[in-house]
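Workshop exercise sheet. Pairs work together: one partner reads the sequence aloud, the other fills in the structure field after running the prediction. Swap roles for the next sheet.
Pair: D.N. / O.F.
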Amino acid sequence: MQLGVVSDIHSNLVALEAVLADMPAVDRLVCAGDVVGYNPWPAECVDELRERGVPTVMGNHDRMVAAGRNFRGNGMAQAGVDHASEALNDVQRTWVENLPRERRLADGRVKVVHDHPEVTDKYTYPEEFGPHLLGRGEDGSSGDQEEEQEEVLILGHTHVQHHEVYGEGVVLNPGSVGQPRDRDPRAAYAVVDLDDLSVTEHRVEYDVEAVQEAVRDAGLPPRTADRLTEGR
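Structure field:
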């Protein structure tokens, strides 16, 4: 079984369309959250996933829109939340509001969260990856909950593409579709093969200048546009 994995789309429809066009044939598409925020097309990105029935978890930007909360001290993030709050219709907003914190797929073999499996909003960078994130102890032991141990943990939030394969399973961040922060401005995604627990990371070019122009036309912060060419 092949899973196409995306995360942190952040209302960047042009990047999302490029990823979907580039992605090889997969059995299922999965999203690790933050469908909205930052960029100009929150409604269109929500509809793209909603209409495809893509299993999606709630990211922190999704949660801010759903709860009507504010990002304190981050005007750029707040501008994206405000834009999304105004752009979403009732159906789209309800879809965002009903996103869960985590999902288990493939008979429990795959767990999807946005940030960290236990700590909400924690950034889990590559250097923090380890088998303990798969519900095991630091030594890789599973304790008394063997039936609940996933083989693949999918997370996002950092916008940094990376994966590690351990004897216990795989920890994967597919990177960000709509706002990469690993010094590579190309849209990121990954494909997981559940038959052999292998991962292929992918990057795809998209029309960054068109997105930057749309950001400015929407009255969003200039920094939102500038960082798209920087990959950070």
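Discussion prompt: The first strand starts at residue 2 and ends at 6. What would you look at next?
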